[in-house]
């Protein structure tokens, strides 16, 4: 009797479970999103004369009318030069940069030169030129290519 009391509900459950998966779903499944991509160039259209086709390519916009298209001139200084400049001499006290082995003098990043002389706190006279288009990892200062270093 005890086996019958447990066996009958177990048998009914086993018979009922496979039938659960064969019915219709009760809710709608989430629809798959559809993405529509427009062509980069519009399709060719028939010409009014009926013979050839005319294709209209999109126009590339230019700068707005009120924006300047050239850089105004001025005196080169930190961050203002676009490449190499004429030789110049800087005199002052060297400061440590935010990155290791990066040294600054009057806002210029000292690139090259003797590291025995170029160190934080040293008062130096440095000759070289601005190289504003040089990429560095120092994150600050306009690159200054050192050609000569002397204590000041």
Features:
six-stranded mixed sheet; single chain; 152 residues; alpha+beta
Task: Describe this structure as you would to a colleague.
There is one protein chain. By secondary structure, the chain is of the alpha+beta class. Helix content is 12%, strand content 24%. It is built from 1 helix and 8 strands; from the N terminus they run αββββββββ. The strands form 2 sheets. The protein has a 6-stranded mixed beta sheet with strand order 3-7-8-6-5-4, with no helix packed on it. Strands 1-2 form a two-stranded antiparallel sheet. Strand 4 (95-96) and strand 5 (103-105) form a beta hairpin. The longest helix is centred in the first third of the chain and has 19 residues, at 2-20. It is rod-shaped, with a radius of gyration of 38 Å. The model is unreliable at 67-77 (pLDDT under 50).
Secondary structure topology:
Blueprint: H1 2-20, E1 45-46, E2 53-54, E3 88-93, E4 95-96, E5 103-105, E6 108-111, E7 123-130, E8 142-151
Parallel strand pairs: 6-8
Antiparallel strand pairs: 1-2, 3-7, 4-5, 5-6, 7-8
